[in-house]
């Protein structure tokens, strides 16, 4: 390409912002459990000429001409997704996890129908019936959650609620839950009481794809996911379902809730699925599990209470109330940010603060694991976090941690 047409020439302001964000990603420890660093190959696909193409419809059934090659790329993404998750039908067009979930609701519910879902405070997601989300506005929502003592999903209470509420749809899946989910049991409950089941595996998709977390695919009627979290692909969503629901899912997505699909992103998804089918990807997911356990155990040994006492997956939640009762999740997040450690405040079960303050932190290892960090680095990260949390108002100590964080990130550069 003519260098005069390059981004830095055409729009130096945007180019400079992107460069600053690149540097931020290089020099920060990324512990947000839902973020990751996708591969250069995925970024190339997403930044390709496929962004120019409109392709409403599905392969071989489009509304516009010129779809020969985008048909090929979408078909490839579909075939690879089926191979990866062993599902009967896949729709790779959702722009996001939210779009995927909304399309499932549209496919099988009418406004006012009862749904049973995990509450946001206990680790669920906004689109699982939160009152200010369309899912909570359109459908009659009842929430289940975690057991107050064990902090594991309370399957018995879920069953009791299914018995009384008689939901049309049950959802299972979480944004902030560190334990293995028993999809089979929830499917049995849902089906016994005449409900359909949607499993949202956005967070754990990489673990499910590699067999390191039980898959809901054999049991759930619908399985939704994002492609950018543990799956490490481009930002986007996907719906898997039984063949019997294929037609209604496809039409709920298009024309039901979306117009033209993002073909450049679908190409990125195809690349991501190819990468996820490789043996290296399973090794990566195994390392995520080891790293999360190492980081969680070290934080625990430094005196912090971990929600549910530990982790089985890529994340864990720290309840700050026991150790540092005066420190909110927000204060902790802001102080850690000053030390180049990025994570998010999170509500904890039985939360006493507002969601804007929160009493917990959610910590995940997918992104630092992608950089190549292993257990020894997790011990260092735990020490950095502990030092900052215990010296929240000491900018000198925080600056020292920041220098050490930058030194660590330099040993594990990003591939771009
Ligand atoms: N924002 C995502 C997360 O952090 O879990 C969920 O959509």
Please tell me the total number of domains: 2
Sequence stretches where pLDDT stays below 50 over 5 or more residues = none
- The CATH topology name of the largest domain reads Aspartate Aminotransferase, domain 2
User: What is the distance, rounded to the nearest whole angstrom, between the alpha carbons of the first and last residues?
Assistant: 19 Å
Q: What CATH first level of the largest domain would be assigned?
A: Alpha Beta
Radius of gyration: 22 Å
Bound compounds, each kind once, are: D-serine
What does this structure look like?
This protein is an alpha/beta fold. The protein folds into 2 domains: 233 residues, 3-Layer(aba) Sandwich (Aspartate Aminotransferase, domain 2); 132 residues, Aspartate Aminotransferase, domain 1 (Alpha-Beta Complex). Helix content is 44%, strand content 13%. Strands 4-10-9-8-7-5-6 form a 7-stranded mixed sheet, sandwiched between helices. The protein has a 4-stranded antiparallel sheet with strand order 11-12-15-14. A two-stranded parallel sheet has the order 1-13. Strand 11 and strand 12 form a beta hairpin. The longest helix is centred in the C-terminal third of the chain and has 23 residues. It is globular. The two termini are 19 Å apart. D-serine binds next to loops.
């Amino acid at each position: 390409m003519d260098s005069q047409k390059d981004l830095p020439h055409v729009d130096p302001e945007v180019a400079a912002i992107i460069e600053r964000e690149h540097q931020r990603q290089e020099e920060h420890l990324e512990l947000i459990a839902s973020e990751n660093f996708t591969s250069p190959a995925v970024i190339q696909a997403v930044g390709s000429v496929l962004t120019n193409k409109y392709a409403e419809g599905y392969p071989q059934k489009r509304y516009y001409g010129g779809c020969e090659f985008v048909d090929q790329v979408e078909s490839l993404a579909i075939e690879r997704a089926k191979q990866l998750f062993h599902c009967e039908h896949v729709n790779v067009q959702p722009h996001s996890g939210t779009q995927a979930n909304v399309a499932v609701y549209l496919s099988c519910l009418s406004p006012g129908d009862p749904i049973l879902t995990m509450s946001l405070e206990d680790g669920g997601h906004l689109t699982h019936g939160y009152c200010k989300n369309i899912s909570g506005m359109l459908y009659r929502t009842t929430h289940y959650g975690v057991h107050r003592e064990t902090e594991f999903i309370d399957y018995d209470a879920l069953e009791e609620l299914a018995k009384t509420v008689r939901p049309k749809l049950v959802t299972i899946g979480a944004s902030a839950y560190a334990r293995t989910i028993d999809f089979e049991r929830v499917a049995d409950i849902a089906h016994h009481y005449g409900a359909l089941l949607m499993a949202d595996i956005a967070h754990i998709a990489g673990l499910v794809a590699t067999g390191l977390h039980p898959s809901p695919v054999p049991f759930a009627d619908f399985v939704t996911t994002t492609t950018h979290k543990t799956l490490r692909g481009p930002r986007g969503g996907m719906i898997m379902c039984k063949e019997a629901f294929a037609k209604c899912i496809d039409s709920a997505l298009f024309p039901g809730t979306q117009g033209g699909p993002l073909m450049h992103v679908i190409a990125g998804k195809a690349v991501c699925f190819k990468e996820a089918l490789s043996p290296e990807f399973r090794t990566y997911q195994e390392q995520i599990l080891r790293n999360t356990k190492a980081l969680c155990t070290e934080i625990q040994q430094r005196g912090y209470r971990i929600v549910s006492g530990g982790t089985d997956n890529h994340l864990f939640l720290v309840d700050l109330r026991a150790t540092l009762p005066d420190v909110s999740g927000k204060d902790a997040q802001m102080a850690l940010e000053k030390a180049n450690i990025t994570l998010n405040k999170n509500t904890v079960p039985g939360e006493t603060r507002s969601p804007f303050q929160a009493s917990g932190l959610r910590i995940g290892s997918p992104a630092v694991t992608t950089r190549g960090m292993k257990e020894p680095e997790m011990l260092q990260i735990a020490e950095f976090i502990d030092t900052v949390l215990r010296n929240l108002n000491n900018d000198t100590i925080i600056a020292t941690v920041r220098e050490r964080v930058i030194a660590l990130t330099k040993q594990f550069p990003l591939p771009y």
